[in-house]
Design a protein that fits this description.
The protein is elongated. The protein is built from 16 helices and 22 strands. The longest helix has 30 residues. It has about 475 residues and is of the alpha+beta class. It folds into three domains: about 180 residues, HUPs (Rossmann fold); about 80 residues, Uridine Diphospho-n-acetylenolpyruvylglucosamine Reductase, domain 3, CATH 3.30.465.60; about 120 residues, Phenylalanyl-trna Synthetase, Chain B, domain 3 (Phenylalanyl-tRNA Synthetase, Chain B, domain 3). Helix 5 packs across helix 6, helix 7 packs across helix 10 and helix 7 packs across helix 11.
């Protein structure tokens, strides 16, 4: 009943109510309006022009010529430019080389057009001082989007369809996309243009069956209406239900995020033990939250990517999965890592070459300061390892010529407490040193052997005993 009553309202009031309900535009702000020249965007521009005083906003028009339809694209650009002059609205009309972007990125034409268009909108928004861009997506676009997601194999998130407000991350800064016409149909926008004697342009590419969206619009939806004449409202009801359930997941996910997720640089770190205890629905939601934080949106993240991650959660440490956006998901011993370069999580800086330690004294290495102190009296209590970056060694066994390097092929040492040597690589696996860290762990050596795997274990043969007369204390500090 509410929908029928709303549909009897003038279109301007329906849009005004929707904008206010969802807080889409702040008072005293500049709103960038994306106008293609078609009925939806022309309707949106004219309605916002009538509402701008009521909303307390300024408008700036943006049009991008994609240069894909020859003279038709040029005519669209001239139409929009002339309309902006007649209405007295400042406008930015530009060209975008979609075909070139498609060839360079080797993506679909639709993806290329979207990338170029949103880059243009982001740059224009920044240049005119607008942090929000209004687009003319209607309820028909929403239905088509939901069906596209289903065809491509979406999860529950994709069933939400289009949102009234969406934060979009682009190079150089974020901006928001708003959809004031999301409860308005294409029939409504066309009717409005006729009533107001507006003459929007017709994009003939909308009749091509090449893009998936057009196939859904011209073939799939008419077929579905043969089974259910009210299919569009049924799909939108499903979207509302999905949105309410995802809102619950979002609330629970936000709480859990604080407990089991942390960030370091551009890496998301999930506590493995806590994450594995979660129900699958919350695992998937937290993974989407992580992708959203890193990429700014989920446009390239499909259900199969989330499911691929779910399948390796119980795999051994070291398992890695390459994902869109240059991201990698890594399984470690205590954590899962999602980011571009997991080695940056290592507490150890990269160490190249071999460095001689000053005994006693301070040695400066790339990223490290090493303090060496000689102690004359045996102090067995010092062996208590409160600081994993400090160690006490038997100087009579180590000798006075010590070096620091990273691990090498064939390295072996005898870990404290063991009676025979062990391959260093095997020790690092058994000690659960993350694979991404292993080449960065400093190794203290004498001429004969490894003395200390810094942060983990000294060699048993150089441990301090009651009979030790001279003790070497080494401490590493981040430089």
């Amino acid at each position: 009943m509410k929908e029928n009553k709303d549909n009897r309202k003038p279109l301007e009031l329906r849009v005004l109510d929707f904008i206010r309900e969802h807080h889409l535009v702040p008072v005293d702000s500049c709103l960038l309006v994306a106008v293609s020249g078609g009925p939806d965007s022309v309707c949106l521009l004219h309605i916002l022009l009538r509402l701008k005083d009521e909303l307390g906003i300024r408008l700036h028009l943006a049009h991008l010529n994609h240069q894909l339809r020859g003279t038709e694209s040029e005519a669209d650009a001239r139409y929009v430019d002339e309309m902006a002059r007649q209405l007295g609205i400042p406008a930015t009309v530009a060209r975008g080389d979609v075909a070139r972007h498609q060839a360079e990125k080797r993506i679909s034409l639709e993806e290329a057009a979207r990338d170029v268009r949103y880059t243009f909108l982001a740059e224009t928004a920044r240049s005119v001082g607008a942090d929000r861009v209004a687009v003319g997506h209607t309820s028909d676009d929403n239905v088509e989007t939901i069906l596209m997601h289903l065809v491509r194999g979406t999860g529950t998130t994709g069933l939400q369809g289009l949102k009234p407000y969406l934060k979009w991350r682009m190079a150089g800064g974020d901006f928001a996309v708003i959809r004031p016409l999301l409860t308005v149909s294409r029939g409504d926008t066309s009717g409005y243009c006729q009533e107001q004697e507006l003459k929007p342009r017709t994009d003939t590419s909308n009749f091509s069956l090449s893009p998936l969206r057009n196939k859904i619009r011209h073939q799939l939806l008419p077929l579905l209406k043969g089974y259910n004449p009210g299919i569009e409202q049924a799909i939108l009801r499903t979207a509302r239900i999905a949105a309410s359930e995802i809102a619950f997941l979002a609330e629970e996910g936000a709480r859990l995020w604080k407990e089991i997720v942390r960030s370091q640089e551009d890496i998301i770190i999930l506590d493995k033990e806590s994450f594995l205890k979660l129900p699958p629905a919350l695992k998937r939601h937290l993974l989407r939250m992580a992708f959203q934080r890193l990429l700014g949106n989920l446009k390239d993240i499909e259900t199969r990517h989330i499911e691929e991650i779910m399948e390796i959660l119980n795999k051994p440490a070291g398992k890695r999965l390459n994902l869109p956006g240059g991201l990698t998901f890594s399984v470690e011993y205590q954590n899962y890592l999602l980011g571009e370069d997991s080695p940056v999580l290592s507490p150890f800086p990269r160490l190249d070459g071999t460095w001689t330690l000053n005994l006693p004294g301070k040695t400066v290495l790339p990223g490290w300061h090493v303090n060496a102190e000689l102690i004359n009296q045996p102090q067995p209590a010092m062996e208590k390892r409160d600081n994993p970056l400090s160690a006490h060694l038997n100087l009579d066994r180590t000798g006075n010529s010590l070096t620091v390097r990273s691990r090498q092929i064939g390295d072996r040492f005898q870990p404290l407490g063991m009676n025979q040597p062990k391959k260093l690589g095997r020790f690092m696996i058994d000690a659960r040193i993350p694979a991404a860290w292993r080449d960065r762990v400093p190794i203290v050596c004498s001429r004969e052997q490894i003395l200390w795997v810094v942060g983990w274990r000294i060699d048993d043969r150089v441990k301090v005993t009651d009979n030790t007369e001279r003790i070497l204390r080494l401490e590493f500090e981040r430089g």
